[in-house]
Specification:
Shape: elongated
Largest sheet: 5 strands, parallel
Strand order of the largest sheet: 2-1-3-4-5
Helix content: 40-55%
Order of helices and strands: EHEHEHEHEHEEEHEHHHHHHHHHHHH
Radius of gyration: 26 Å
Structural class: alpha/beta
Distance between the termini: 46 Å
């Protein structure tokens, strides 16, 4: 693509297609952060700005950090309906994350601003010791220089070009592109920006400045990353610790979501479409809150069990069976699926120091109070109360995927599922749904 093109990363494929059709070559749009990052890494192309919609498929914070390692002056705008660049909340976020601002929607006028911008193609300049090279055009949409910048002179030494906070003249930047391809910034500036971003990420869930949507997307993205690692790595105590950290973040997220905005309902809907383990973890935390279980039981027993319950399904002789419904399996796969609670328990018992009570919950996570579950038809007082909760949540996950219509799903739960579980567990689940 010649000339200049902004980069848009948006979760909605319809929006992406519209951008591609209406931008007249002034935008490159994708749902994939990996594809977007490959464009950003190509220093032969002008990118005046990146427009980013926080999404559960990738971590916004990780993506910001990677962008600014490559092109630290590149303006990044967050597409966020619930916050504008004009209020104090957004100002605080921009200071901590170094994003340029927030926009409520994507408009044609935004892309029209880039018409006529052209620059020659260049090869990426190798990093000078102590400095990193930045394409001059990356400064185009900044009102002021975000840090001190330098230019290289004939003897290859660096001289100051613009001080941090100095006003930027966009026409000067365009003219400068005819003479220079790169300005330079000291490496410690990038390290400091990365440190600040990491600190902000660590406190984001408890920070009221950040929108619920962004918080939810960030936790779900990190959940997805963890599950991908569990699928492809050997299980061990380090992985269990990562799962524990994730559950703590999920619990913080739920505690800090604004209940009157529908954020909790959206979290459940998005976790439902994300992964069984994340959906079960989310509902587990909510049910434990409703039943007033202590935090340790929620995280160390039920939470860990919810995350790791299906590890034996990820690498089977028939491949990954975790996303396959039992009625879609052949006879051999179905037999394996019937035994997977025991197999998951065996794997964890051999490779981790998970407590026996957590292993018991994993072993029983498809059993039912009336002994109609599997693999051992355990019920009554032999069924651990937390295992019953996890089994009930798993049933809800299966029904919700079979019946996309909410009324049909609720009828199926009432007539075919709830009858197999204790009244206390079912009542707690109903109370949660009544709050959504």
């Amino acid at each position: 693509m010649s000339g200049c093109a902004a980069v848009f990363i948006h979760r909605d494929l319809t929006v992406v297609e519209k951008l591609r059709q209406e931008s007249s070559g002034l935008a490159r749009a994708t749902t994939s952060s990996k594809e977007a990052f490959s464009w950003i890494q190509d220093h032969t192309q002008t990118i005046p700005a990146v427009y980013l919609s926080p999404d559960a498929d990738f971590s916004t914070f990780d993506f910001l950090e990677e962008i600014w390692k490559e092109r630290p002056a590149l303006p990044v705008w967050i597409i966020e309906e619930t916050i504008s660049s004009q209020n104090d909340c957004s100002t605080r976020i921009m200071e901590k994350t170094a994003v340029t601002g927030f926009i409520p929607a994507i408009s044609a006028s935004m892309m029209a601003a880039y018409q006529g911008l052209r620059r020659k193609k260049t090869s990426f300049e190798q990093e000078t010791p102590g400095f990193i090279a930045i394409p001059v055009m990356d400064f185009l949409l900044h009102p002021h220089f975000p840090f001190d910048v330098y230019f290289r002179v004939a003897d290859s030494s660096m001289r100051i070009f613009g001080e941090k906070g100095m006003k930027i003249d966009s026409k000067q930047i365009e003219q400068l592109c005819e003479k220079l391809d790169f300005l330079h910034v000291k490496n410690e500036v990038i390290r400091e920006r990365s440190r600040l971003l990491q600190e902000t990420c660590a406190g984001m869930l408890e920070n009221p400045d950040f929108p619920d949507n962004w918080k939810t997307a960030e936790v779900l993205a990190r959940s997805k990353n963890l599950l991908n690692r569990i699928r492809t790595s050997e299980i061990g105590n380090p992985m269990v610790n990562l799962a524990r950290n994730l559950l703590e973040d999920l619990q913080k997220l739920i505690a800090n979501l604004k209940p009157d905005t529908g954020s909790l309902s959206r979290l459940i809907d998005r976790s439902l479409s994300n992964d069984r383990a994340i959906y079960c973890s989310t509902l587990s935390i909510l049910l434990c809150q409703q039943l007033k279980f202590e935090k340790k039981a929620t995280l160390e027993i039920l939470g860990i069990a919810a995350i790791l319950q299906d590890i034996s399904l990820y690498q089977t002789p028939s491949g990954d069976l975790s996303g396959k419904a039992p009625d879609e399996m052949n006879a051999e796969e179905a037999r394996y699926h019937q035994r997977h609670p025991i197999l998951s328990t065996d794997i964890l018992a051999h490779h981790t120091t998970i407590p026996q009570v957590t292993l018991q919950v994993i072993r029983q996570h498809h059993e039912r109070k009336d002994r109609t579950g599997f693999p051992n038809r355990i019920g009554g007082v032999q069924l651990h109360p937390l295992a019953e909760i996890l089994s009930l949540i798993n049933c809800c996950f299966d029904v919700s995927h079979r019946y996309l219509n909410q009324k049909e799903a609720l009828f199926e739960l009432e007539s075919e599922v709830f009858v197999h579980f204790s009244e206390s567990s079912v009542l707690a689940l109903k109370k949660i749904h009544s709050r959504l």
